[in-house]
Write a structure and sequence with these properties.
Strand content: 25-35%
Shape: globular
CATH superfamily: Jelly Rolls
Distance between the termini: 33 Å
Radius of gyration: 12 Å
Structural class: alpha+beta
Number of domains: 1
CATH architecture: Sandwich
Number of helices: 4
Largest sheet: 4 strands, antiparallel
Helix content: 25-40%
Order of helices and strands: HHHEEEEEEEEH
CATH topology: Jelly Rolls
């Protein structure tokens, strides 16, 4: 599957990313893959942020929420998520999540 990056605009609406400087947010956006999931669509990721819709992993995630190592997630409604592997999360996102 071709990597389609998340958009800076979408990510800036998520609390986790709202305060990031533009250059940093741009790097994060490039690293996160944006994916549309139909109801029942599944995904494995080390980090996932829900941009729209509702998904279930270890817990139900709604727009603007995120999870690290959520296990397999399944879309309960049509959903748009941004995701990456754990190593990318640790390098680019974790330092800001713990700030």
């Amino acid at each position: 599957m071709r990597h389609v990056p998340a958009s800076v605009t979408e990510l800036s609406r998520v609390g986790l990313f709202a305060g990031l400087p533009g250059e940093t947010l741009g790097r994060v956006a490039e690293a996160l893959a944006r994916q549309d999931l139909p109801p029942g669509g599944r995904l494995e990721a080390g980090f996932v942020v829900v941009l729209s819709g509702i998904v279930r992993g270890a817990e139900v995630l709604r727009p603007g929420t995120w999870a690290v190592d959520p296990g397999p997630i399944a879309a309960l409604t049509p959903a748009v998520v941004a995701h990456c592997d754990r190593a990318t999360y640790d390098a680019l996102i974790a330092p800001h999540a713990n700030a």
